[in-house]
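User: Quick one: structure for sequence A, then sequence B.

Assistant: Sequence A:
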Amino acid sequence: MGRTHALSGAVLWLVAAPLLSREEWLGSYAVSLSTSQVIAGAVVAAGAGLLPDIDHPSGRIANTLGPVTRTMCRWVSRASGGHRHATHSLLFVVAMGYAMGLLAAHFRYGWWAALFVLVGFGLRGLGLDFEGHEVWSGLKDCGMAGVAVYLMHDLNMSFAAYPVALGCLAHLIGDCLTPEGCPLLWPVNWRMETVLVPRTDGRVERLVVVPLLACAAVVLTAQVLIRHAPSHWFSSLTG
């Protein structure tokens, strides 16, 4: 479900981003975002959409950075109780959002490292790799992740808790629609399961879910660019 998770993370962020400026809802936690920040948030949310699967040592993202991510996924799997346990809970969503927000706001180099990994996860989730060539795929992911970090290194990402949490939440919602569901209230041993997608990576997901999410991502991104572009152009003409 790599493509589904990455795209759904980006889509949920793009839908929620305009609401984050509502002070009557969020109070002091409200944020006003520029076009660049909204787009950067979509990149982060797409990567975070794969983050709960760090408990899957044989999953798609385990090969993102070769032995580094494989070892990390193996350790997390052992510590969390295996696939679709602790990392597939609301507690994990909150913890990751808080941790990444803290890094982005106060620990620049730590945030850059986290951003590098998140972008790599997003690329691997979208399937932008070389089939059967893990080494070349890993090098490509590292290169593109490095470019993303460079482009975003001076951008104020103190709001990162939001796209990270929303990306993780999108993952949980997606998994709850498949067999086995998710233990949303972990450590309580109860799973939310409403099977609308009978098989992961099956025909329903590939032919219906992924195309719909891709279209939604394109439309929402276009809306962001169109909404902010006129004022930017006017400022450049009158400045």
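Sequence B:
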Amino acid sequence: MATVSLIPLTRENYRPFMRLKVAPEQETFVALNSVSMAQAHFHPEATMFGIAAGEEPVGFAMLEDHTKDPANADDTYKVEPYVGLWRFMIAADHQGKGYGAQAIELLIAYARTRAPAKVMLLSFVPENGNPRGFYARHGFVETGEMAGEERVMRLAL
């Protein structure tokens, strides 16, 4: 299996990652990468990564990182500093190869470097086929809270 890495996205390298798509039955779980990239330009707390296996683009992640500008953070951050996993996807033709597991561990390791963040938060759509089990295998636990229609999970850093 190829080694997975997180690639900070720039204007020079974003295109192959923007084109990646999940399987049709997963489309309700995550926004298109192009939508996420557009949103990131209006949210200074957004940090985008391409996920590569060797040299091959296989996925995309976007974190909500208020440690970059704590004065403008939301109330949740002010109570308990966090890094949020805003978007995470592995392209349909690269799923089942262990790339997602490697990538989520790299994202967790990155979050641990973002002092004063104490937890990593994420939310997921609670439909059949959701990624709850995947996140639970990596230490995330459900909080019982909802973010709109999505269930919240947290991981202590």
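The first helix runs from residue 15 to 18. The mean pLDDT is 95.

User: Thanks, that's what I needed.
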